């Protein structure tokens, strides 16, 4: 599976990752004993990753995530629950969180909302 990895300097790298599993990668990225991590064929400093998004979008999307750089990431979160998501975002022991198939640096998220909620500009 091709995954787009966005670094904190804005660089975007497409990585071919066999057996991509957002939950497992989140654990590796949050492991304090790791300074560097392997993603496919590349090795990067774990602190420099801001997000990992599969290039192939899920068939069903129920969540819109607004990032502090102005981009929007859409994903499917099974059993979407505001309180559970808020607790994940406020967990200071983890820098990266897996939401559906995407992995995001929690400090780069400005808003998460169900796709059905309408906003006015």
Termini separation (Å)? 36 Å
How many beta-strand runs?
10
**Mass-distribution shape:** globular
Count of folded domains: 1
| Mean pLDDT rating | 94
Q: How do the strands line up in the largest sheet?
A: 2-1-5-9-8
Which class do the helix and strand fractions yield?
mainly beta
- SSE string, helices as H and strands as E: EEHEEEEEHEEE
Radius of gyration: 14 Å
Give your account of this protein's structure.
14% of the residues lie in helices and 40% in strands. A 5-stranded antiparallel β-sheet has the order 2-1-5-9-8. A 3-stranded antiparallel β-sheet has the order 7-6-10, with no helix packed on it. The protein has one domain (2-114). Strand 6 (63-67) and strand 7 form a beta hairpin. The chain is globular and about 40 Å long. It contains 2 helices and 10 strands, in the order ββαβββββαβββ. The termini are far apart. It is mainly beta.
Helices and strands, with pairings:
Layout: E1 2-7, E2 12-16, H1 22-30, E3 36-39, E4 42-45, E5 49-54, E6 63-67, E7 72-75, H2 82-89, E8 96-99, E9 102-105, E10 109-114
Antiparallel strand pairs: 1-2, 1-5, 3-4, 5-9, 6-7, 6-10, 8-9
């Amino acid at each position: 599976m091709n995954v787009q990895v966005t670094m904190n300097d804005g660089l975007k790298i497409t990585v071919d990752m066999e057996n991509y599993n957002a939950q497992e990668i989140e654990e590796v990225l949050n492991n304090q004993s790791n300074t560097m991590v392997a993603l496919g064929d590349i090795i990067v400093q774990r602190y420099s990753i801001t997000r990992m998004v599969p290039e192939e979008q899920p068939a069903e999307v129920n969540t819109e995530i607004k990032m502090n750089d102005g981009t929007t990431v859409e994903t499917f979160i099974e059993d979407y629950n505001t309180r559970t998501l808020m607790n994940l975002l406020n967990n200071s022991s983890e820098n990266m969180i897996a939401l559906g198939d995407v992995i995001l640096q929690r400090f780069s998220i400005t808003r998460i909302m169900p796709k059905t909620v309408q906003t006015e500009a």
